[in-house]
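Q: I have two molecules that I believe assemble together. Could you output structure tokens for the complex as a whole instead of separate predictions?
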Amino acid sequence: MSSTARLTVAVRSRQCAASGGCRRAAPTVFGRDDHGWVTVLDPHPSVELLEDVLEAYESCPMAVIEVYDEQGAPLV
Amino acid sequence: MTQETALQHGTDDAAALVNALVTGGVQDPYPLYAQLRELGDGVHWSEVLQGHVVTRYDDVRSIASDHSTFSSDVFWGIAASAHNPEDIEHLRFIDIASRLFMFADPPTHTRIRSTFRHAFTPAAVGRWEGLVGQVTRELLGRYPRGEEFDIMPGFAADVPVAVIAEILGVPAEMRPRFREWSYAYASTFDPIVQGEQRDRAITTSLELFDYLATLVRERKAAPRDDLVSELVRTVTIDGDVLGDVELLAQVALLLVAGNETTTTLIGTGLTLLFDNPEALDAIRADRSLLPGAIEEMLRADPPLHLLVRTATKDVVVGDHELPAGSVLWLCLPAANRDPRRFTDPDRFDIHREDNKHLSFIHGVHFCVGAPLGRLEGRVVFDHILDAYPDIRSGQEPALRRVTNIVARGFETRPVVL
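A: Yes, here they are, computed for all two components at once.
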């Protein structure tokens, strides 16, 4: 993947528990609504953010984050 | 491990250090943690614990991240599960105590945890800020100014019990009983509490369980604006609701995991501030420093020192090749002061950036009550400094408990308000 390649990030927000770990790990990718539930700010972040996005995935107690590479293959 | 690598890693030294750590009597464990972390690969066998103690940040964090390789389903292997199978009370106790979701892996863990999804959101926790402040003021007001007293038993222990009692919807007059029950239940996790003492702790814990069972039934029948009502109606990820016993076990877990840890934070936090007067001065002048200071208190001296995982397959941890079934003791305070991860790790730095300590652990078991713990820390210290800006250490020494290797907080913390 070149550095311009994009990941795809999705969340199952109905299962979010608003613990905020994803926002701390990747603040440009994950946000929150007024209630604290996760929102995706950037559904196609650069692969340069892969480490942060994977950390967000690991940080989620509810495992609601999905990460895919440019070809759509799941990375987690 | 082979003979050769055993020598290379100084296993004899490590064994002596681990033994000193585990067999009790250590007032300050931090020098031992540092030596163990820097010796060999930082992974050391403990004969007493029948497992390896893992001390480095990266190792602890990657083990915590990988819940399928490192299982939390360890209840039946730890002291908390000890019981007499002939004793019907013991069996009733164990049936409930074994269901705590901290000892479950996904998907069971995810299902139970999903019940808490509304419980500790920023909005929910924000609602409790006034309550925590009120409880703090009420309890602090009992002490005279200018006289030395020990803040641990009367204040530090009462704050979290009063707060969780209010949050759960337990009436104020029940608080003393509730505190007694919570402590008895917590003591069933302490390997040192055995024999008749454990029998008594189990009997008392069952009173707690019975009380919580009634609470759950009542809130199911007539919901109120409290946490138990929220939990009984929250649908799990699987679309069902938790059974009564399953739910009351998790409510009991909130007590055992939330009370003593918050008490410990108050004692270690005060001690760190007394030992670092420039930090205390800075916070006094600028309360916006408090959240960072609370994180640093949690990093420098975490309430929980050890967490257990078991390997579900053959693994490599540090330089150790370990077979499936191996037990790993994650040493959070050692990891939190790993110089590979934190600059100047023994320094108490309330301005520390990127403070990703492991005190609430990492991954799917990240502390469900962390937002409440953080709130309590912030509000308690804020109110202490408002009402008693000149608070200082007493003359008597502050002493850590030395009989419990998992929780080494201060047993006494003399202060003058």
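A: One point stands out. The beta strands of chain A are 8-11, 30-32, 38-40, 65-68.
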